[in-house]
Write a sequence for this structure.
């Protein structure tokens, strides 16, 4: 993972707004509708090349493929792992309980887009097909080389997020299910790392899982689950250097009240036990921006690079660059300027065809992130 000794580097979490044609192909593929595979491949190649170029043009340093080929950040595994079929029941958001009118409005705002399926585990899990991953790797490598990018990252789902949000209908216990996922995903992680990309593991299970899946349980019980998920992740990463990986933790990329979110201070020590050196987390939205002080008061391993979200991914407000700079400097004051990058709270298009932030405004927000990093760099290296 590249760091800098003379300025704050910039990056983001992963998903970026997909062109309409890309989303159309993904929905057809998701619902097993007929589509032209060659046209699909050409479309994806063009989209990845374009989105890499756009990120660099906006001033981003560490870029990715925008997750163009993924219908969902974790549901894509059905194309690579055996043992998944059908659909899981809708998840329950505890913070939306008692808000039926708002839930209905959220559904209406999502439009007529077909719901992304969350296949459940119905058989033994094995990593069986690397073809889609190989194409992702090839497309990103080509785009990075073509545009002369400094460094690229590629997203992958954590064993824990798959286990939490895609129900187990096969293994005798949740522990067995998680263990099988860690063993299978280990191969995907290795392919990404061997390709020379920074491996980003997406881990909303460590925070969002509390108010979505484990809302009926105590914080203590949830933290036990989270610890097991971190242990499974560390096993899956055993052959990958910590500095070659980063992880993203969030409470859910949706505009809701979030008043049921577990406090960062309660899961902080568990998160810090995870192997990846880079840590991306929410630090911009109204519910979690104040929790920068948890880092000030907590124990942070010396190898950790903090990548706080300095722009919100669910609001069409464009953060002022001066506010972005203030947020960056807070964390630089805690761990030192060389151990901080500027990032976003979450992705801008978690699922294909769905996104709260207008694509043009998303680019405006990224521009503000870059400008804020420049302001912070001048202050920190004055």
């Amino acid at each position: 993972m590249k760091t800098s000794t003379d300025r704050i580097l910039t990056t983001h979490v992963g998903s970026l707004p997909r062109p309409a044609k890309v989303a159309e192909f993904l929905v057809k593929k998701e619902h097993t509708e007929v589509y032209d595979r060659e046209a699909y491949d050409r479309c994806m190649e063009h989209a990845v090349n374009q989105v890499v170029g756009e990120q660099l043009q906006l001033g981003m340093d560490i870029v990715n493929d925008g997750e163009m080929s993924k219908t969902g950040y974790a549901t894509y595994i059905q194309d690579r792992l055996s043992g998944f079929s059908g659909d899981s029941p809708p998840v329950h958001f505890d913070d939306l309980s008692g808000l039926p009118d708002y839930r209905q409005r959220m559904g209406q705002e999502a439009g007529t887009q077909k719901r992304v399926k969350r296949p459940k585990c119905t058989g033994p899990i094995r990593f069986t097909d690397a073809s889609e991953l190989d194409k992702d790797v090839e497309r990103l490598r080509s785009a990075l080389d073509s545009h002369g990018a400094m460094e690229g990252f590629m997203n992958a789902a954590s064993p824990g997020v798959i286990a939490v949000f895609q129900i187990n209908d096969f293994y005798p216990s949740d522990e067995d299910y998680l263990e099988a996922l860690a063993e299978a995903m280990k191969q995907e992680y290795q392919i990404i790392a061997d390709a020379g990309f920074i491996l980003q593991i997406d881990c909303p299970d460590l925070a969002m899982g509390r108010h979505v899946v484990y809302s009926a349980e105590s914080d203590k019980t949830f933290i036990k689950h989270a610890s097991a998920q971190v242990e499974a992740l560390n096993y899956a990463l055993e052959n990958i250097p910590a500095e070659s990986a980063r992880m993203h933790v969030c409470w859910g990329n949706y505009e809701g009240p979030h008043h049921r979110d577990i406090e960062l201070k309660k899961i902080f020590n568990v998160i810090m036990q995870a192997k990846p050196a880079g840590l991306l987390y929410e630090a911009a939205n109204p519910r979690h921006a104040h929790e920068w002080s948890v880092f000030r008061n907590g124990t942070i391993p010396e190898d950790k690079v903090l990548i706080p979200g300095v722009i919100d991914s669910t609001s069409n407000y464009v953060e002022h660059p001066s506010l972005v700079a203030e947020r960056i400097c807070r964390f630089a004051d805690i761990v030192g300027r060389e151990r901080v990058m500027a990032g976003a709270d979450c992705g801008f298009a978690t699922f294909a065809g769905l996104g709260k932030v207008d694509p043009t405004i998303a680019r405006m927000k990224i521009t503000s992130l870059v400008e804020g990093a420049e302001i912070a760099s001048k202050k920190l290296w004055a």
Remarks:
- The chain has twelve helices and ten strands.
- Residues 9-380 form a domain with the TIM Barrel fold (CATH 3.20.20.210).
- The two ends are 25 Å apart (CA to CA).
